[in-house]
């Protein structure tokens, strides 16, 4: 696999479906610049747009990974 770019995101700010496409808006948290010690603010840094089939395929893959992680952490915390 030849990856040309890598993006980092702290989270997803919006997820919506329009025109047959699924749109993800990602963001990173930026520190408070006012000096008042406020919580970091999310700053959008990437929009990913996928067709519905691609989204559903990705969702299935992520669900399988989530299930594996849950099973692994359950074994770790059981002792």
Write the layout of secondary structure elements.
Blueprint: E1 11-18, E2 21-30, E3 41-51, H1 52-78
Antiparallel strand pairs: 1-2, 2-3
Outline the structure in words.
This protein has 79 residues and is an alpha+beta fold. It has 1 helix and 3 strands, in the order βββα. Strands 1-2-3 form a 3-stranded antiparallel beta sheet. β1 and β2 form a beta hairpin. The radius of gyration is 17 Å and the shape is extended.
Quick structural overview:
The chain has 79 residues and is α+β, with helices and mostly antiparallel strands. It is 34% helix and 37% strand.
Task: Characterize the biggest β-sheet.
Answer: 3 strands, antiparallel
Figure out the total of helices: 1
Q: Give the mean pLDDT.
A: 92
Strand arrangement across the biggest beta sheet: 1-2-3
User: How helix-rich are the residues, as a percent range?
Assistant: 25-40%
Instruction: Give the CA-CA distance, first to last residue.
Output: 38 Å
Query: What gross morphology would you assign?
Result: extended
The SS-based structural class is alpha+beta
Task: Tell me the fraction of residues in β-strands, as a range.
Answer: 35-45%
Low confidence ranges: none
Order of helices and strands: EEEH
Q: Tell me the Rg in angstroms.
A: 17 Å
Total count of strands: 3
């Amino acid at each position: 696999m030849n990856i040309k770019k890598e993006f980092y995101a702290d989270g997803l700010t919006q997820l919506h479906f329009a025109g047959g496409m699924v749109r993800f808006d990602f963001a990173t948290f930026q520190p408070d610049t006012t000096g008042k010690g406020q919580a970091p603010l999310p700053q959008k840094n990437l929009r990913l747009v996928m067709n519905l089939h691609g989204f559903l395929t990705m969702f299935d893959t992520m669900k399988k990974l989530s299930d594996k992680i849950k099973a692994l952490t359950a074994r770790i915390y059981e002792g």
